[in-house]
Amino acid sequence: MRKIGMVIALCLWMFQVQAELRLPRVFADHMVLQRGQEIPVWGSADSRERVTVSFQGKEYRVRADREGNWELKMDALSKGGPYTLTVTTRDESVTYENVMIGDVWLLGGQSNMEWALKNTNNGEDSIKTAKHPDIRLFEVGRNLSLEPIDDVPEAKWSVCSPETVENFSAIGYYFARRIQTDLDVPIGLLDINWGGTLSEAWTSPEALMSHEDFRERVVTNQTEGPKDFSDPEVRKPNLWPTSLYYGMLEPVIPFAIKGALWYQGESNAGRAYQYREIFPLLITDWRDKWGQGDFPFLWVQLANFRQPKDEPADSDWAELREAQSMTLSLPNTGQAVIIDKGEADDIHPRDKWTVGERLAKAAKKIAYGMDVVYSGPTFKSMEIQGDQIRISFDHIGSGLMVKDKYGYVKGFAVAGADKKFHWVKGFQDGNQIVLETGDIDDPVAVRYAWADNPDDVNLYNKEGLPANPFRTDEWQGITYGKK
């Protein structure tokens, strides 16, 4: 009889666990829900249980499936708050307080995106004045998985204040502060990143299986990869493509978002040609998984880094920047160029304020449709005229500007058919740049800011946005064919 009693007690306990009403951690007090579009809400309950979501005077009902999973969509709403959201079943109820309706931005990438506000230039002053209750941060703890999981094991929403903001993503904070101030809308930030990680760790297996360089590895991971990542020798996301997609990103999908901010590429620089394919693959993958169409996707181009070189040279970082710029061919994308804000001896530039400001300009144009200059000059065309080359640009704003007291533009190199590049002098002529090719025989190609660290570049538009690095040749780079 004692054994029978234990079995009955165990069954009752299992029933109670199964019947527990649960929502992912992304639903919590202080959260921000996306305005202007339907809002997905999902979770688990008892099999076939009826679930009611109450928000803003309206009730939404759904029945859980056989496994206890349920999902519904609430109506689109305008900005506002604070509100209360309640989820109920026959026997349980969960209530979330201080809920705002605004814009939600995903922060993804590696260490420069997760870099804490307290470790930046003027970080202490920014923390002291960070009284912005309409800015909220959802921070996901580091986690790996090679298979789908119901929820992230660690995450929380925080309201921006001097007491909470010091560990916020600095770029996320400065971006949110600008958008929130200028548009008067609550901002939620989904902070989902991990320093030093490769882009393929953040991409789904379905997407990576479409790329020949990763197909075999994905299959091997799924069949032979670890289930437990507690061992420090195993807990290395770059060993396991898709591990951060499953472990940190997928559990928040399809939480409605306005768009995504991305700062990553340093770890992929050695395979920059491959990045031409796998970076747009990641963007397309995320958009497909979210099911929101081509939501805005904005990224930070790699900053200048390492010691400057005396002569023009090949550069994997320049090739990675080129791959990033090429991805602008996707719709609703934008890029913040920070070729003037890096530090030779530090891969983590401390000026995150400028990065956030430039991302905000791109967001105003691409996500909000505002009439703003959001990009620095980009290469348009070149014309060889004897011993001079005339360069024209798009995105000149109200005009080109050379930051040099003598008016000389720097950072340009020219090569002849021998493919050997030489620094050249240049000057501004209206909204064009004229390069003097001197003794270079039959010049055929121009490169600008083509280096790990082109530390003296000085070409901008009058709005203060730097010219995008470029090259006119298509000669094979040093990362071509690397996998």
Automatic annotation (TrEMBL):
Signal peptide: 1-19
Domain Sialate O-acetylesterase: 103-363
Database matches in Gene3D superfamilies: Immunoglobulins, SGNH hydrolase
Any Pfam family the entry gives: SASA
Keywords associated with the record: Hydrolase, Signal
Coiled-coil regions listed: none
Keyword Transferase annotated: no
InterPro entries, alphabetized: Ig-like_fold (IPR013783), SASA (IPR005181), SGNH_hydro_sf (IPR036514), SIAE (IPR039329)
Highest taxon of source: Bacteria
PANTHER family in the cross-refs: SIALATE O-ACETYLESTERASE
Protein's name according to its UniProt entry: Sialate O-acetylesterase
